[in-house]
Amino acid sequence: MKKQIPPQYYHDYLNLEDLLTSQELLSEKAGERAHDEMLFVIVHQIYELWFKQILFELDSIINAFDRDVIRESHIGIAVSRLSRIIEIQRILIDQIQVLETMTPMDFLDFRDLLTPASGFQSIQFRLIENKLGLTAENRYEYGHRDYKSQMHDEHQMILERSEASPSLFELVEHWLERTPFLVFEDFNFWEQYRSAVDEMLASDRKIILKNDKLSSKQKKTHLQEYENTEIMFDSLFDKKKHNDLINKNEKRLSHKATKAALLILLYRDRPILHNPYKLLSKLLDVDELLTTWRYRHTLMVARMIGRKIGTGGSTGSSYLKESTEKHRIFSDYGNLTTFLIPRSLLPRLPDEILRNLGFYYNSSTHK
Amino acid sequence: MKKQIPPQYYHDYLNLEDLLTSQELLSEKAGERAHDEMLFVIVHQIYELWFKQILFELDSIINAFDRDVIRESHIGIAVSRLSRIIEIQRILIDQIQVLETMTPMDFLDFRDLLTPASGFQSIQFRLIENKLGLTAENRYEYGHRDYKSQMHDEHQMILERSEASPSLFELVEHWLERTPFLVFEDFNFWEQYRSAVDEMLASDRKIILKNDKLSSKQKKTHLQEYENTEIMFDSLFDKKKHNDLINKNEKRLSHKATKAALLILLYRDRPILHNPYKLLSKLLDVDELLTTWRYRHTLMVARMIGRKIGTGGSTGSSYLKESTEKHRIFSDYGNLTTFLIPRSLLPRLPDEILRNLGFYYNSSTHK
Amino acid sequence: MKKQIPPQYYHDYLNLEDLLTSQELLSEKAGERAHDEMLFVIVHQIYELWFKQILFELDSIINAFDRDVIRESHIGIAVSRLSRIIEIQRILIDQIQVLETMTPMDFLDFRDLLTPASGFQSIQFRLIENKLGLTAENRYEYGHRDYKSQMHDEHQMILERSEASPSLFELVEHWLERTPFLVFEDFNFWEQYRSAVDEMLASDRKIILKNDKLSSKQKKTHLQEYENTEIMFDSLFDKKKHNDLINKNEKRLSHKATKAALLILLYRDRPILHNPYKLLSKLLDVDELLTTWRYRHTLMVARMIGRKIGTGGSTGSSYLKESTEKHRIFSDYGNLTTFLIPRSLLPRLPDEILRNLGFYYNSSTHK
Amino acid sequence: MKKQIPPQYYHDYLNLEDLLTSQELLSEKAGERAHDEMLFVIVHQIYELWFKQILFELDSIINAFDRDVIRESHIGIAVSRLSRIIEIQRILIDQIQVLETMTPMDFLDFRDLLTPASGFQSIQFRLIENKLGLTAENRYEYGHRDYKSQMHDEHQMILERSEASPSLFELVEHWLERTPFLVFEDFNFWEQYRSAVDEMLASDRKIILKNDKLSSKQKKTHLQEYENTEIMFDSLFDKKKHNDLINKNEKRLSHKATKAALLILLYRDRPILHNPYKLLSKLLDVDELLTTWRYRHTLMVARMIGRKIGTGGSTGSSYLKESTEKHRIFSDYGNLTTFLIPRSLLPRLPDEILRNLGFYYNSSTHK
């Protein structure tokens, strides 16, 4: 039974007494208030509150996937909470425009006082990255320094624990590897898909060869690119080649999970695959928006401090630039579109399988 | 001389230890955590942090205008800080989309626990309204209850103090009334303007009369509207009529300030009027965005609670709807466009006056 | 078999030769180009291109619903195309900001030349309204004039045809009335729901009565509101009362469709109801965004022309204001939240029914 | 005198008859309509209409700067038209979200028919780049092919003409080089600035050296970065070094223009510098938004086609990625923040100069 809760007042419920007095301006302590430091503090506090919310949702999604049997409803919950994270990320990006109302000159008024405080020390942001699945070896190492090095000891421990726990990337990969709805028994899907692919690639090749506007030099370039496409397909059909790419750090998702994810993409029109498809699609959204945020942030920092060393003694702008690409986590899902084939070439699934992927409305209840 | 400040760490500088533990879920206290209550708390905390920032900027703008001699630089500062408020308001509106990821059903899980907490009790939002210039008599009174009645005593006092202090509306009005750059001495601006207006109105009237597609009934309607336009111009030329409209609560800005504001609009191309024009324009933006926020908020609340009584025992959605229009503060500036006349009809200012409204680049330094 | 298509060039494929020469400035014809007329023309052309796309999607959705047996896949297609319409509507709203870079003074330079052209004459916008389900009687009649009166004859005929064809509102209502997945046979859902409602209403009533902060006058107000809630529930349980509200134009959706829609809301967690829930939710989004667009448009027009008569001899701003509320089409779906009850009170469906609302993963295929 | 213009109807004024029939679907010609091709066509037509508007504004800005004496009002016009371009660019970026409602699978339905049409062939986009100031040598050359090679002959000529005409970059550079308001006569600004810089750099250096948390290896890294900062300042004080950087393609803006731009940044609070500061700032905005658009576009294309060859036989995604950084035009203005110094260290300008940078309100007219 639920306990009784005393009547609430807005101000107390939200702890506003503390919240609204937690802005301490260093410039004021130093004797001369810099007007824009208030914005700087509040914007960063708001970032951290959003990060807390993202972590809260992320933990619940990880929890939904960290079990043996994953139900439809777990996927449904994951999809709607990822959607929430995505809406928050859009705000994170948009609110850079607020911070940009501070000019570089106004920032100079208090910038030196911040040393060595820096956004690099945001433990929550690092946790988000770790929980999504960024690995220590994929981190861009700025200035020969571990990303945890400038943090409080207890925060270092929290981060280490998150590195050791299964990430969302790993849990979803594991789920894909044992996904039940795509076991075809007798039906040889992959053989039929392969012959469709061969047909499509042959047509792509012809497009290049018959393009009269291309010089022979240009044709050569295109044919090289075409061969790269072939090589990518090879890795799809050959686990060993796929694993080679993983070893070269060009792919991350396992061969088995890749094939399951591709099937979800190809047959996403079937009701049972709606939510799995959305799941993969939203993971990619989260990844792209994280990258877009880093990118917009880079532009903003570059504009704010030019090429000088950042607060915390960092060349913030170069760091952010490097990490933009390197820190992608779910890009393998995006690259799956390489393997799409036109609907007309798609192997037609046997009725038995089709039925397992749909709903049955009891038509007799129709009036 | 500046005092020495010890080295700062991000986590401490932003007071994150307190900030990130200040979310207490009532559903948890009641024995069963409602997942979405975290979002509800954090979104509202973020609203309040933004409100604090808006108040901080607003106070500094009010301070810039609360003096005898107002310099160009004061106007410049007001313009750039209003721009910041505007960017924040855009975020306030956009972030409604985050809250909308909570479904009405999810809200029901903890809604009853909130009683009687309600956004109506946000003292900061009321302060923003008061400082901008919303008067007690223009407030939509919900349920025969003063807007301060459900607040802590010290908050009631703070609000009363803000009601008694000069608002931004009043300060800008006062500044307009004594604005120096529009004293024309011998040049009779208003006489020339009036004859231009008469010419324009006559042409408008002809447009209606010669429109063959209008039935005589429709023409009548249009002519009535045309006469309303004439009446509005009458009030511009006749202080008494203007004051009548003020008494009927159809206008608020004084006759003298209205004329100064119109001159700023008409000659806004002159360098010296750039910033004054932007000032008026941004006050209108702030007002519109506040209204847009209320409007979007209304739609969201209606969708969340339907037509039931809100948290705090309020019919939130009807309140918000009523207040949307009633709480406009600077709409008189928007209505000034009624009085614009085409550039071609605009009285040409004497050279002497023109010179006072511009810069002089020493052309000899041109090479 | 597909026909061969000759090689395409971007410029020709998009018909850019025509498209980019289709801007004719009246101010240029009149002898003096007004710089901002180009923006005015192009922004409106872009609006019309987006309207064409919305109509294209809308027609395909209507087509999907205009049949006897509606499959899961039809709902899925409707949901994804409504999502596209929603994204377009967001752009329609945002792009008002581009038009707002034109100042009222700049508009005056060519405004009089436009007579009597006016956005009221956009046939595509009227078609969107008609196809969604706005009825002729619900239209705000501006100036005693039919909305078709200022259009070309063939356009009047197209609009009349759209008025006579089944609208999306009607088709979805019809689908809801015969929706098969909510036939409960022996299980008496509505009896159990009603007793849950009674319990909830009694608790709401207690909240008002025990609130010490309310004066007796305020309590009276709240109790009246509470009784309104009761009346609304009455109409849910009594078809006659529901029809009375329809006759008074306070509701539009039929009693049977209302009940089906409410069941979808209440059990939207069940896989089979995912898409039907999204359908209703997105129809409401479309409606709200249309309203939001009208609202933002109103503010913009008011700012642009003040209280003067609009192009086409209309008092544009007052029209837009009136129509904002009156032209809502799907608000009944939003009001359904009034009838939500907490999950804990929700009647537990029998296993047999639950099974019909879900998927069955063949657990033996799990490895 | 103005010519008479006959009455206009909305439909005719906007040429809607042609505009709304200018969408020809290749999939329809090929015998099987692909539903999503309509969106593809309309979105790209809308892009091109926006590009036309951007070019229209850009031409008028270039025209304002392509003269011997540039007045305050020219700068003012440039600033407000750049603001308009910026608002359009924001829409260009946002509307990618509309195109993203098309799935890769839906795109496959008509993608092959488009060969070799491709966004690379947009002459208007190339013109925008050329007119802003992208030089042929700074273009990322995709597949050993000139960017003009796949265009109609007359379009190639138009592009060649734009390459040969003065770009906005060059015109603004030229204006900065002869800007009159920063001639200081006797006052030795640069000497005083240099000693302020030396003071600031010495302090930055101390920050690194006294940071106990840095290992000696890390300190070395930081000191190298610090030295890079010194080298950048050297180039500011030494024209020869600056020109070396230009020759190495690390800078583009001339030494003289760089110094003028820096002065504008440093004293942007002075009324006369408001608009010049905004001009530089908005040029940077345009550049960043162009880059952001390319970046978002890259992500979208990658997601749509994976790593396969693009329409037009291009590896669209790799191209877009390469060009993102390489095609920046105004980044030198962003890098100027490197040279900012705190307000407290800023040389105090002599009264005579200050007076030339401000307005004079005739205080006697104050009442």
CATH fold-level assignment of chain A: Methane Monooxygenase Hydroxylase, Chain G, domain 1
SSE order of chain A, one letter for each helix or strand: HHHHHHHHHHHHHHHHHH
Number of DSSP-assigned strands of chain A? 0
Give the oligomeric state. Answer: homotetramer
Largest sheet of chain A: none
What's the CATH class label of chain A? Mainly Alpha
What is the number of independent domains of chain A?
1
Strand content of chain A: under 5%
Task: Please state the CA-atom Rg of chain A, rounded to the nearest Å.
Answer: 25 Å
Global outline of chain A: globular
Give the largest chain-chain interface (CB within 8 Å): A-B, 70 and 70 residues
The portion of residues assigned to helices of chain A is 55-70%
Number of H/I helices of chain A:
18
What would your notes on this structure say?
The structure is a homotetramer of 367-residue chains. By secondary structure, the first copy, chain A, is mainly alpha-helical. The first copy, chain A, contains 18 helices and no strands. Chain A has one domain (13-187, 238-365): Methane Monooxygenase Hydroxylase, Chain G, domain 1 (Up-down Bundle). In chain A, helix 4 (37-65) runs parallel beside helix 10, helix 5 packs parallel to helix 15 and helix 12 crosses helix 13 (239-247). Chain A is globular, with a radius of gyration of 25 Å. The first copy, chain A, starts with 9 loop residues before the first helix and ends in an 11-residue tail after the last helix. Mean pLDDT of chain A is 85; it is low at 310-317 and 360-367. Chains in contact: A-B, A-C, A-D, B-C, B-D, C-D. Chains A and B meet through helix 1, helix 2, helix 4 and helix 5 of A and helix 1, helix 2, helix 4 and helix 5 of B.
